[in-house]
Each structure stands twice: as structure tokens, then as C-alpha cells.
Specification:
Blueprint: H1 2-80, E1 115-117, H2 122-128, E2 135-137, H3 151-158, E3 162-169, E4 176-181, H4 182-187, E5 196-202, H5 210-214, E6 240-244, E7 253-254, E8 260-267, E9 270-275, H6 280-283, E10 289-290, E11 298-301, E12 323-327, E13 332-335, E14 340-345, E15 349-356, H7 362-371, H8 389-398, H9 402-418
């Protein structure tokens, strides 16, 4: 009986121990579950803090980046709106992919609209246009005898005279220069086609026929002309006769010596594209070309035909900005220095181009003379740039070496011989 009781007692102890262990395990599991839950909550809190921290850092980074980008855009916009001719020292901080566009005055949106003026006073012309921006004068040609020039006039009076022209069969860059009697040209002057056209451009014809020069007026806007001071041997030829078939056109260029150019239309109609200064990069200006004038100077021509551009070969040309307009008979166009331009004869057209060097552009013209090596800057007096404009011009003219004057005569005579005038 005692043995049974002992055995029973041991079974009870084991049973109690087993229950105690299960209870203890369940308690441990419960505590472990609570600890796990707490750890999970703590981890979530830590994770949330980390996400928030990263979000703050990211926001700050975006703010800094946006501010930097805005600063860059502000710089570019500032450069874009800088007035013509200014040179900014801070261009080096503009990123390569944010290059500024051509410089356009901030408060002069009208720059891209050509003014047509009548009754324009000389003072207003000098203040607003001379040496600054192009303008068409609509009321000065009506009293010129040249306003009566037409095909019949030239054939009747000068039909047998030799004239210089360029003929195109294909592209503008394929133009060939030829000389033949004006009568022959006139017989075909109505036959211009998009790929086949002829353009009479004779710089000496009017000069060799003084009676024609008298048919051209002398408006007040062009009367101050320092070129008249130059010896005849090296004075730039003035009053070039222009007579083109439909589709004929000039090259895209800046006029020699950076002078102020003019164009008077007497018959027909011209279209124009003018490019304000500061766009040489987009126009692929050909370097180191010389004019071969009696007084030599650099020539600034573009290989691009603005009326038939090859944008695959010249892709930057798409960024160039121009003023496009039409010039009618009886209108005089005046183009300031530094403006690239190209004329297109929409129909058979007769016109005359000329130039002036005056108190508004004399400095840029003299600069071209210096650059070509015609006069050594070292010979200039210390107070040269303090002298009045006309005195500066006279000093340079008197400093021209005798061999340059001799060369000027030779160049003119060679051209006359080629045209069978001598």
C-alpha cells in the first residue's frame, strides 16, 4: 500500500511538473510574442524615421538642384537679353547645354519688325536708325530720274555695252561669273527659274556712265560720306547696277568695310532676310576671305543660301533669327554695319546699291582698313581716338602707302580690260 502511494505521489509530481512546464512555456511564448510585437513596432518606428529623414534630404536636394537650375536659366536669359555688341565676362559660367541665343535688347521687341518711314527727319534718322537698325524710306525715290529705268531704257541706250553678271544652273554656290552685252542679257531677263537664273551685278557700269549717276538722287540721309575723301585709286566703287531675273539672289553676307549699305528698287520686287549682329556661329562665316577691292579688306560671307538652306550640312543655321520683308519699287533700304543680309528677286528686278562711311560708322570702317594691313596702327598718334571723326579718317587716308595706291589703279584697270572697256 505504501508502494502504491509512493508511485501515485510520483505520478502526481510528474503531472504537476508537466503542467507547470506547459504553463511556463505558454507564458514564455506569450511574453515572446509580446516582445516580438514590441520589436516589430519599434522597427516600424525606426523605419518610419529613416523614410522621413530620407524624404527631407531628398526634398532639400531637389530644392538645391532647382535653385541651381533656375540660376542657370536666369543667367542664360540675362545673356539672351543683353544688348548688341556687349561682351559679358560671365559667359564661362553658362553650361554648355544652355548656350545663350543671339543678343536682343530687352526693351526692344520692335527690333524684329522693319520700319517703313516717310517724312523722316535727319535728326530722327541719326538717333534711331543710322548705324543701329535697318529702315525703309518710302518717299525719296519718286523724284529720281532713275525711277523711270526699265528694260527698254537700258537696251535702247546701252544694249551693246558689256556687263558683268553671275549665272546659276543648280545651287547658288555653283554660280559662274560672265561678261556679255547688255542686250543679250535683256533678251533672257524674264526667264528666271528656281534652279536656273541670271543676276547682273556690275560695280563699274554706272561709274563709267556719269549720266546714269546723275539720275540717282542724293537724299539727306546719305550726304555725309567720308569715302569722298579717299583717292580715286582706292575709293570703294559706288552705285552698283543690279538687274536680276526671278529667283536670282545675292550671297548671304556683310558689306565690305562694314559700311552702311543702301538698296534702291526702281522696277520689280525684292525679298530680304536680315540677320542682326551676334549670330556668326549660326551662319558659318567663311574665314580669311578677301574682297580684292582696290583698297583690300576682309570679306564676311556665309556659305548658306538662306532661301534654300542645307540644314543637314549647316544645322546651327536653324537657331539664327532674321527679319524677313518685301521691298517694293520706289523704296530705299538702308542697312547698318554688321548685319548679314541676302536679297532675293521675286520677279525681274532693277535696283542700285550704294554705301556711305559717316560719323556713325567711321570707326568700324577704319577698323577693317587696319585689320587688312593697309595702315599700321603703330603709326597712329597717341591722341588719334580723341580726334574728330573726319580728322581720324583723313589721317588714315594720308597714311596709305604709295604701293597700295598703285595696286588700286592696277586692280581697276585689270577689271576694265577683262570687260573690254579698255
Amino acid at each position: 500500500m505504501a508502494v502504491e502511494n509512493s508511485s501515485l505521489t510520483q505520478r502526481k509530481k510528474k503531472l504537476f511538473k508537466s503542467k507547470f512546464q506547459r504553463s511556463n512555456n505558454e507564458k514564455l511564448k506569450a511574453e515572446g510574442s509580446e516582445v516580438g510585437t514590441a520589436n516589430t513596432k519599434l522597427n516600424f518606428v525606426y523605419f518610419a524615421y529613416i523614410i522621413a529623414f530620407l524624404a527631407v534630404i531628398s526634398s532639400l536636394s531637389w530644392l538645391i538642384l532647382c535653385k541651381a537650375l533656375c540660376n542657370e536659366l536666369e543667367i542664360c536669359n540675362s545673356e539672351f537679353l543683353t544688348s548688341f555688341g556687349e561682351r559679358k565676362e560671365n559667359l564661362n559660367i553658362v553650361k554648355e547645354n544652355l548656350k545663350p541665343q543671339p543678343r536682343v535688347p530687352k526693351d526692344d521687341a520692335s527690333l524684329w519688325v522693319l520700319d517703313r518711314r516717310s517724312n523722316l527727319s535727319l535728326s530722327e534718322f541719326i538717333e534711331k536708325y543710322d548705324g543701329k537698325r535697318p529702315v525703309i524710306i518710302t518717299d525719296v525715290l519718286k523724284d529720281w530720274k532713275a525711277s523711270k529705268w526699265n528694260k527698254e531704257f537700258f537696251v535702247e541706250n546701252y544694249g551693246d555695252r558689256q556687263v558683268v553678271m553671275k549665272a546659276v544652273h543648280g545651287k547658288l554656290h555653283q554660280a559662274e561669273s560672265i561678261a556679255l552685252p547688255m542686250r543679250i542679257f535683256a533678251q533672257h531677263s524674264h526667264e528666271g527659274r528656281s534652279k536656273t537664273w541670271t543676276y547682273l551685278q556690275d560695280e563699274l557700269f554706272i561709274q563709267l556712265h556719269p549720266e546714269l549717276r546723275k539720275d540717282l538722287g542724293n537724299p539727306i540721309y546719305l550726304r555725309e560720306d567720308f569715302f569722298k575723301i579717299f583717292p580715286k585709286e582706292v575709293r570703294p566703287w559706288n552705285a552698283m547696277l543690279l538687274w536680276g531675273t526671278a529667283y536670282s539672289r545675292s550671297y548671304l553676307h556683310v558689306d565690305p568695310y562694314n559700311w552702311t549699305g543702301t538698296n534702291a528698287v526702281f522696277y520689280g520686287k525684292k525679298l530680304w532676310k536680315l540677320y542682326p549682329p551676334g549670330q556668326d556661329e549660326y551662319l558659318y562665316v567663311m574665314p580669311n576671305k578677301m574682297s580684292e577691292f582696290p583698297l583690300n579688306c576682309f570679306k564676311y560671307n556665309s556659305p548658306i543660301d538662306a532661301y534654300d538652306p542645307d540644314v543637314k550640312k549647316y544645322p546651327k543655321f536653324l537657331k539664327a533669327r532674321e527679319i524677313s520683308f518685301e521691298q517694293k519699287p520706289g523704296e530705299l533700304l538702308i542697312i547698318p554695319p554688321g548685319w548679314f543680309h541676302q536679297a532675293f528677286n521675286a520677279v525681274e528686278t532693277i535696283a542700285v546699291s550704294s554705301q556711305v562711311m559717316n560719323s556713325q560708322n567711321y570707326d568700324v570702317v577704319l577698323e577693317e582698313i587696319f585689320k587688312a594691313g593697309n595702315v599700321d596702327r603703330k603709326t597712329l598718334p597717341e591722341d588719334f581716338y580723341q580726334l574728330p571723326p573726319i580728322e581720324q579718317v583723313m589721317f588714315v587716308v594720308n597714311s596709305l602707302p604709295s604701293d597700295i595706291l598703285k595696286r588700286g589703279r592696277e586692280v581697276t584697270n585689270d577689271i576694265l580690260k577683262q570687260m573690254r572697256y579698255l
